[in-house]
Design a protein that fits this description.
This protein is α/β, with parallel strands linked by helices. It has helices spanning 3-15, 19-22, 30-34, 36-44, 63-67, 79-88, 127-135, 152-160, 162-177, 200-212, and strands at 51-55, 72-77, 94-98, 110-116, 138-150, 216-221, 232-238. The chain has one domain (3-238): 3-Layer(aba) Sandwich (Rossmann fold), CATH 3.40.50.150. Helix 6 (79-88) links the parallel strand 2 (72-77) and strand 3. Helix 8 (152-160) crosses helix 9. The chain is globular. It starts with a helix and ends with a strand.
């Protein structure tokens, strides 16, 4: 995660109580946010014996419920985020690691890895070093899900469709009635202008890069009932046995 994004999310965890807002979503998406867990569970094929690492676990909206489904799990994020997570769930199988992922030395390995709604918060030049470092932590046969990638091409196609136009009208009406705004750009916190962006071409570049490196790589759709399910995709990378 870029330095600016990293510190911004730490500041949000210190300022706010609403965990959905801290994670960068809209307050009206709280119910949809809960459905992410089932989608992640299916795509990672989590099993009770698994070891799971979540990079950028924020305040535990995904990590806490997922921790009940695996043998052990670890989460990495800003100290302020992890401090709030600990107050929510001090699980015995939960190991929390403070720091920015690219600055850390991780010696353990994991069968499953989750990085959800994070890649668009890292610097443009950090994208491949970030993914490379994450994949190096996988055991043979391990699965890594880089989820919730905002695909500008997918969004343009959706908004140009009749369903998309109707959705946009309903969505704007919901936001007018809502008092809970997203935390991605709250007052006093400036967004990082140099974070990674994604469209069809960029995602295909990522897929081909890691296939050429010997991984199995898949672009997966999100269910439309997730917070940004109509405009985002998930990248699943599997390390061969």
């Amino acid at each position: 995660m870029s330095r600016i994004s990293y510190e911004n999310y730490g500041e949000l965890a210190s300022r706010l109580m609403n965990t959905t807002l801290i994670a960068g979503r809209y307050g009206v998406q709280k119910e949809a946010e809960r459905r992410i867990v089932a989608d992640v569970y299916q795509k990672l094929k989590l099993e009770p014996r698994d070891s799971l690492l979540e990079i950028g676990c924020n305040v535990g909206n995904l990590l806490v419920p997922l921790s009940f489904l695996v043998a052990r799990c670890s989460g990495i994020d800003h100290p302020a985020c992890l401090a709030k997570l600990r107050t929510r769930h001090p699980g015995e199988n939960l190991d929390l690691i403070e720091g920015n992922f690219l600055d850390l030395q991780i010696t353990d390995s994991f069968g499953k890895l989750l990085c959800y709604s994070v890649l668009h918060c890292i610097g443009q030049g950090e994208l491949f070093p970030f993914i490379d470092k994450a994949l190096a932590l996988l055991t043979p046969g391990g699965r890594a899900l880089f989820g919730d990638l905002p695909n500008a091409s997918l969004k343009a196609r959706f908004l140009a469709s009749n369903v998309g136009k109707e959705f946009e009208k309903e969505w704007r009406g919901m936001l007018v009635k809502s008092t809970s705004q997203p935390s991605a750009n709250p007052p006093g916190l400036e967004p990082d202008p140099d974070t990674a962006s994604f469209d069809d071409d960029r995602l295909m570049e990522i897929v081909l890069r890691y296939r050429n490196l010997g991984f199995h790589v898949y672009l997966l759709p999100q269910p439309p009932d997730l917070p940004f399910g109509n405009t985002r995709e998930d990248l699943l990378i599997v390390k061969p046995d």
